[in-house]
Design brief:
Elements (H helix, E strand, L loop, with lengths): L36 H6 L10 H16 L2 H8 L3 H8 L7 H10 L14
Helix pairs in contact: 2-3, 3-4
């Protein structure tokens, strides 16, 4: 058996230079990296709704009274206990987000913004 000899195919000195790997400055938008001015103009921001905890609970109680009529019907519609529905009707507590989203799907006009502190 003959001994093996390791040979370097390309040494560090003989390798060709690779050039710049990162983006050149020609690709950077004005103002630095990030969104261009045209892209910023396309972004839409939702208005901020300023409403207190008490106002939110009163709003929800009003929607439930108008749309459900009584706590028993509300409990069946949203799959909650009657006591939970009573708490909503008396503005004692607020629902979880999944309940609010379901109500928004059923009654979008009630969540248009006019009653939520917008447009005042």
């Amino acid at each position: 058996m003959s001994p093996r000899t390791l040979h370097s195919i390309a040494g560090g000195q003989s390798a060709a230079p690779r050039g710049q790997m990162s983006r050149s400055s020609a690709f950077v938008p004005s103002g630095g990296r990030g969104r261009s001015a045209q892209a910023m103009r396309r972004v839409q921001a939702l208005p901020v709704i300023e409403i207190s905890r008490d106002e939110a609970m009163e709003f929800w109680a009003g929607v439930m009274r108008r749309r459900c009529g009584n706590p028993e019907t509300c409990a069946v519609m949203f799959g909650v206990t009657v006591q939970t529905a009573r708490n909503w009707f008396t503005a004692f507590s607020r629902p979880h987000i999944d309940v609010v989203l379901q109500a928004m799907r059923w009654w979008p006009d009630d969540f248009s913004g006019a009653d939520l502190g917008q447009g005042r």
